[in-house]
Amino acid sequence: MGGVLEGVRVLDFGRYIAGPYCATLLAEFGAEVIRVEKRDGSEDRFVAPVGEGGEGALFLQINRNKKCITLDPMKPEGQEVMRRLVATADVVVANLPPQTLRAMKLDYDALKAIKADIILTTATAFGGPGPWSDRVGFDGVGQVMSGSVYMTGAGDPPYRAAVNWVDFGTALHCAFGTLAALIERGKSGRGQIVEGALLATALSFTNATLIEQAVINVNRVPSGNLGQTAAPADIYRTKDGWVLCQVTGQPLFKRWARLMGEEQQWLNDPRFADDISRGNSGAIISARMARWCAERTTQEAVDTLGSAMIPTGPVLSPQQALDHPHIRAAGFMQDVDYPGLPKPAPVTRAAVRLSETPGKIAARPPTLGEHTDLVLAELGYDNAAIAALRKDGVI
């Protein structure tokens, strides 16, 4: 497909998000990624189904630009196919528990015995070492164990985020680590293990809150959408919807006070002297902002705040996000056809742009086993051998 990673071959044994999306990012910038699935399709292929074949929205999002083969790696013949595949690869991505990697002979020692400079990129729920190293988990375990869920909502009950930010954050870390490992291999010729963990990602994202707690023992409690370390920072009702406004730093607060037409009131009161003071008095400032927003439509509010260079945005439903003029004009998403879909799927491009070597969505996500024969032929299997593997339930 071309791109900065052209010539890099990645085997994607990933499931759900952290592994597959890491591999997707590599594919978007030119790596050849071969997704290896169960013969009847891996579970993550069918999450939130949208097509005739049951393929889900998540699969369509994070598996573009890949080839797909089916394989039972637990059979001896499947192990031989894997051995040949690994011998041609630069990177193996497998966000599977350590015991599963060992059972599938995808652990680093087994891979290195086949190809000495292989890079294994893996992610677990809890990382290690530690008493929970072998336990499994999804995105939510990182959210609840990092302090994030505790601080979300009004506190009873606590709320986790609907978006799997821990999974996607882990995928980003793993992609970054894989690129670093490829650079190191180019210098030294050595492969290595790149290891991410959902809990590590979640803790890295909430780290400032944890630092504050450790250093000054502030013991914060959740406060809904009201910010605690600056103000105004909240979600406000308008005549026809909701808008978010976030003001942090003295220059922004001065702009906000000027927009309110009340500079003397807000800028000369010691309760509002700096961000943390404003956070401590956030309810007072937020009440003023709430009155201002209630007098305007959402469009009027975001246009006025935007013109004043104050961070703001409307609260959009999924359909409104698809229809928003800036989102459409910026080209963040690309319509991708897929067999059996009633209409093209709007797939987001990688959320980073390189001016000279940009990534691209060059191919739709693969159908189940779409490239099995092609990849096996490249590995030296002839038509009869491929037919025998299919008859024996290996592919």
TrEMBL record:
- What Pfam families does the entry give? CoA_transf_3 (PF02515)
List GO molecular-function terms, semicolon-separated.
transferase activity
**Keywords from the named record:** Transferase
Q: Which InterPro entries match?
A: CoA-transferase_III, CoA-Trfase_fam_III, CoA-Trfase_III_dom3_sf, CoA-Trfase_III_dom_1_sf
Which PANTHER family did the record assign? L-CARNITINE COA-TRANSFERASE, SUCCINYL-COA--D-CITRAMALATE COA-TRANSFERASE
Give the protein name, as stated in the record.
CoA transferase
UniProt organism field: Bradyrhizobium cajani
